[in-house]
Amino acid sequence: MAATLPPPKLLSLDMGAFQITRDDDGWWNKVSAADRETVVRELQATARAQAESSGILEEARASAQQRIREIVERNGAVVEFVPPAGM
Q1: By the 8 A CB rule, do 5 and 82 touch?
Q2: CA 61 – CA 54 distance, rounded (Å)
Q3: Which long-range contacts (CB under 8 A, 24 or more apart) does 52-60 make?
Q4: Which parts of the chain sit beneath pLDDT 50?
């Protein structure tokens, strides 16, 4: 039996609760709401890039294949994983 799995992808990256409890500008370091939003977006983009390059997607793929293989072999068959077209 041959099986093709789609490439794994990161579906969600959530910071949880983000709340500014006090918003005071310093004498020299004026920070606008737009500046803050830009930095938070950049932080999220960096976190996503690091997660995607960390190897977690490859671990997820290997784990899914192993689990499927176990189930298929337990039922007396053999499975071969074929890369999706275009990979």
Answers
A1: no
A2: 13
A3: 52/10, 56/10, 57/7, 57/8, 57/9, 57/10, 58/8, 60/8
A4: none
Q: According to the model, what pLDDT value does residue 63 have?
A: 95
Which tokens go with 58?
């490859």
AA letter at 11:
L
Residue 45 has phi, psi (to 5 degrees) of -65, -40
| The total number of residues written for the chain in this structure | 87
Q: Name the one residue in this structure whose structure tokens are 């977006």.
A: 41
d(Cα 27, Cα 34) in Å, to the nearest integer?
A: 18
At 37 the pLDDT is 83
- Sequence spans of domains, the chain: 33-74
Decide: pTM greater than 0.90: no
